[in-house]
Design brief:
Layout: H1 2-16, H2 19-29, H3 32-60, H4 68-93, H5 98-133, H6 138-155, H7 157-165, H8 172-185, H9 193-215, H10 221-232, H11 234-240, E1 253-260, E2 274-275, E3 281-289, E4 298-304, E5 307-314, E6 324-331, E7 339-347, E8 352-360, H12 373-401
Parallel strand pairs: 2-8
Antiparallel strand pairs: 1-3, 3-6, 4-5, 4-7, 7-8
């Protein structure tokens, strides 16, 4: 009897339960829990699958000149996708329900994936070009390290989503991606490195201002747009005052450079890094790779002990894999010829491709140094050679990729 009463009471309880609780109970009884567990596992694996796809895509990406227009278009499209994402985030958070909410969430996810894909395309397409163009200088090494950091961040979905959802950090990935992509691909489309640099800075600045305005509430939107636009002007202002030195001159690259005293077959016959006595002249020979159809002005900038000595404009023809050979010559070293002479290959905006050094005569000792300065100079030369060889090994690897 007691068992029967218990059974009847359970039946009554089931009848009195709300429909939602009955559905949940029936789902548990029919074994929906394993299906939910499977979905949860797929969600946990999704970032790792995306990471693997991103790595393979970056490795197998076609970086030929035919895709330059596609990357340039991506540098503009990414801002449209990101502004749409910010709008969808705001609309979804305002309390949309039902079917409208599901549609908005699907559109929000699609916009997020499109933005991430475009950012990865821009960063990983241009990264090898900057690796090849970089010189063993502190500014270039810092730029490459920053570019690598953002490229790796773009591969991890949760981190990318977190960055793109932050109001003040959302512009970091697309601004960097559009800037480096346009700087790298526009010279191959017939623009000079100077024009490419300013176009890239303009797109990054305008995109940042528009994104901030689209993300702001309606009332302070104008004020936020003006404030963000003023902050975004920091990039072109920095370039105007010499920050282009930090940006490797991609897609140009210095294949080879040497300094000597005698010319032979468009090169130097006696390459050296030290001369005991002053020569009649110094010759700086460089082989520079440039895309076919490049319209640009490059220079050899000579300095003595860090001070400007001479600037010689070069004649460059693009499209030769071994680099176009050119040289410059200086003479007339005056009454005090001894010192450190450098020859730097630069663009019109000050982007540097590389530097070579030669020392003439003895080296003066500094009062603050107790041991011979020649030891410091030899250590500097060894470190410079080590940096150069390291950069060359990395550049050789990326040439194989391209």
């Amino acid at each position: 009897m007691d068992a029967g009463l218990d059974f009847e009471s359970n039946m009554d309880e089931n009848k009195n339960r709300p429909p939602s609780e009955k559905t949940e109970q029936s789902d548990r009884e029919t074994g929906s829990r394993p299906r939910g567990t499977l979905v949860a596992r797929i969600r946990k694996l999704a970032p790792w699958i995306s990471l693997l796809i991103g790595i393979v895509s970056a490795r197998m990406m076609n970086r030929g000149p035919d895709n330059a227009w596609m990357v340039a278009l991506a540098a503009v499209t990414v801002w449209i996708a990101l502004i749409a994402l910010r709008w969808l985030i705001r609309v979804t958070d305002e309390g949309a329900t039902g079917v409208r909410r599901r549609i908005l969430r699907a559109a929000r996810f699609t916009s997020l994936m499109a933005t991430q894909s475009l950012v990865q395309l821009m960063l990983f397409f241009s990264l090898p070009f900057y690796m090849q163009a970089a010189a063993p200088e502190a500014g270039h090494l810092a730029f490459i390290a920053f570019l690598w950091l953002l490229s790796l961040c773009s591969l991890w979905d949760p981190l990318t989503e977190w960055i793109l959802h932050k109001p003040f950090a959302a512009a970091l990935l697309p601004a960097t991606g559009s800037f480096v992509a346009l700087v790298a691909v526009l010279p191959g489309l017939g623009f000079s490195t100077r024009i490419s640099l300013w176009i890239a800075a303009g797109v990054a600045t305008c995109g940042t201002a528009l994104l901030s305005a689209a993300s702001a509430p309606p009332e302070p939107r104008k004020r936020v747009a003006l404030a963000s636009g003023a902050m975004a002007l920091a990039l072109p202002l920095a370039l105007l005052f010499g920050a282009a030195w930090f940006v490797p001159a991609a897609p140009l690259r210095l294949i080879k450079a040497e300094i000597g005293t005698k010319a032979a077959d468009k090169w130097v016959a006696d390459a050296t890094s030290h001369l005991s006595t002053p020569p009649e002249n110094l010759i700086c020979a460089t082989a520079i790779f440039a895309p076919l159809g490049l319209k640009d002005r490059l220079f050899h900038v000579w300095r003595k002990n860090g001070k400007h000595w001479a600037t010689v404009e070069l004649k460059i023809t693009g499209g030769r894999a071994q680099g176009y050979r050119t040289h410059s010559r200086i003479s007339g070293f005056g009454l005090d010829p001894n010192g450190k002479y450098t020859c730097t290959v630069q663009t019109l905006t000050g982007q540097m491709l590389g530097t070579r050094v030669v020392h003439i005569g003895g080296v003066r000792a500094y009062k603050s140094v107790r041991f011979p300065l020649t030891d410091i100079e030899s250590l500097y030369i060894k470190l410079e050679k080590w940096f150069s060889s390291s950069i060359e090994r990395v550049q050789t690897y990326f040439r194989r990729i391209l």
